[in-house]
Amino acid sequence: MEPHSPTPLNSSAVGMSSHSSSRSAQLILADLQKSYEYQGADTCAADGMCQEKCPVKINTGDLIKHIRAEQMDMAPRSSATAKRMQAAASLALGLSGREKMTMSWMSLPRLQYPTAPRPPYSTVITLVHTCHTPMCKQE
């Protein structure tokens, strides 16, 4: 089955339905957004050419550009939140006197992975000389 992108009208419907507040609508919306992520957002060129095919001239390229910009804005916020959580955890461990215990646990030596036994190496080297190479031409 060949993948297909949703029509501009379907893309707009996904956006409008995200404002519904009922529980069943939220469950349906979560499933719809999950499947829309690839078919609608990841495969969109965001160049506005879908507007030419749309009977009501909806440009979903602008919508996809907006969605991608929001996703890009989330990365720095997530990183900053993780740094704050790490600092808070470190402070909490320090205040409770367990920081040294935690750090000693984290500095355990790495486990050595077992390796397969190697076959014994032969010290006998066998050279095979053939007369099919240019070096062995007989004149």
TrEMBL record:
GO molecular function: iron-sulfur cluster binding
InterPro entries membership: Helical_ferredxn
Gene3D superfamilies with a match to the protein in the record: Alpha-helical ferredoxin (1.10.1060.10)
Domain of life: Eukaryota
Compositional bias (Low complexity): 11-20
Region of interest (Disordered), ranges: 1-20
Protein name per Swiss-Prot or TrEMBL: Uncharacterized protein
Organism: Haematococcus lacustris (Green alga)
